[in-house]
Write a structure and sequence with these properties.
By secondary structure, the chain is of the alpha/beta class. Helices cover about 45% and strands about 15% of the residues. Strands 1-2-3-4-5-6-7-8 form an 8-stranded parallel barrel, surrounded by 7 helices. Helix 5 runs parallel beside helix 6. Bound molecules: orotidine-5'-monophosphate. Orotidine-5'-monophosphate binds next to strand 3, strand 8 and helix 11. Homodimer.
Amino acid sequence: MAQQDWNRQIIIALDYANITEMEHFLNRLDGRLAYVKVGMELFYAAGLEVIYRLKERGLNVFLDLKVHDIPNTAKGAVRSLAQLGVDMINVHAAGGIQMMQAAREGLEQGTKAGSPRPLLIGVTMLTSTSQSMMNEQLAIPGTVEETVIQYARLVKQAGLDGVVASPLEVPQLKERIGREFVTVTPGIRPAGSDKGDQTRVATPAEAFALGSDYIVIGRAVTAAPDPLAAWEQILQSLHSVTAKGGASQ
Ligand SMILES: O=C(O)c1cc(=O)[nH]c(=O)n1[C@@H]1O[C@H](COP(=O)(O)O)[C@@H](O)[C@H]1O
């Protein structure tokens, strides 16, 4: 795969406190990005204006608000988010099949006529969750991988497009849930960088080699002393990788 194609599969998490910081970062990257993620920090601070600005720049937008509520509320929330014309929306798989089916209905209702339907993605186990945390605090027995697969089954049954998981679970997801089932993987740490609050991590090259369709990278680029150099280094590290992802090719 040619280098420029990776660009479409790398989602940069714009975890900034305001629009000024976001614009400063995007100007430094100067048109190199194709896909960005807006999460709770930026959206709760700056709201819809963020989405409009990113769309004006021609970027694909993953609006990561991790909807998790009773089915009727989740449906309305996703309907409202779909009306914004973003490209990807997520909900927590822990909300269960009925909640995700309702979210899916809200997605259809909110998508503007003639516009492509945003991808609807179920968050499985957060990449900050370790097996001991899951077993002891959440009282879920077994391995994280088995729980991720179980959640993914619910996501698929509810008719969603794919899951957020760590890259480490992607081979099993592709084998057991399906190659076309989209995998979006945060927990990305370039070689030698600090894990921070993440526990299930992989490098960008490992994540794509494992089959991730999209990787999500935040602080390794956005908080780097030289974000442009960090971005270029990540692309460089992908030179010899052969993509396995089935859904985004
Ligand atoms: O849904 C997400 O995007 C998400 C799910 C998950 O399990 N883990 C996770 O880190 N994320 C998000 O992915 C981004 C990762 O950021 P960094 O750890 O700075 O690369 C953050 O914006 C998180 O909110």
